Amino acid sequence: MMMKVVMNNVMFALCMYQVSTNPTDTSHTRLYKLVTELVGVVVQFYYFCYCSERLDDCNAQLRRSFSKVAWYSCSPHIRRSLIMLLRRVRGSNHMKLLLNFVVIGNGYFLTVVKFSYTFVNYMRLKSK
Predict the structure, then answer these.
(1) Does the residue 81 lie in any domain?
(2) Would you say the C-alpha torsion 39, 44, 48, 53 has a positive or negative sign?
(3) 118 lies in which domain range?
(4) 110 domain-assigned
(5) Helix, strand, coil proportions of the chain in percent (round to 5)?
């Protein structure tokens, strides 16, 4: 999972760099291929981050619904099972990497976009 995220970040930056460098010098077919590849990488990575956000939203909905249930009036076996579920949903449930150092979500997507833009600007300055 971590390797996929790292490679996706690198692909995002490199695709953005290829599309932004001298688009007038490249053929229309190559430019179309590069733009299509960039759009594919962006959509795939955004969907990955969106799924992490959706996972956390569903976890929050479960947490809210458990607080409204009268679980204390159930049998002891059901109560134990519900307490286990309450323990599972009490924290956030974003996808995480590197021992919770990197939290995948919309904020991470924005960070990757900003980093890619910085990389493109750096490479442009370096090439001049």
Answers:
(1) yes
(2) positive
(3) 1-13+32-127
(4) yes
(5) 75, 5, 20
CA distance 1 to 111: 18
Q: Considering its fold, how many domains does the chain have in total?
A: 1
pTM for this entry: 0.78
CA 114 to chain centre: 14
Any domain includes 76? yes
Digit-by-digit pLDDT tens for the chain (128 residues) are: 778 888 888 888 888 888 888 777 878 888 899 889 999 999 999 999 999 999 999 999 988 888 787 777 888 888 888 888 888 888 888 888 878 788 899 999 999 999 999 998 998 888 87
Give the Cα separation of 24 and 68 in Å (integer).
Answer: 61
Is 101 inside a domain boundary?
Answer: yes
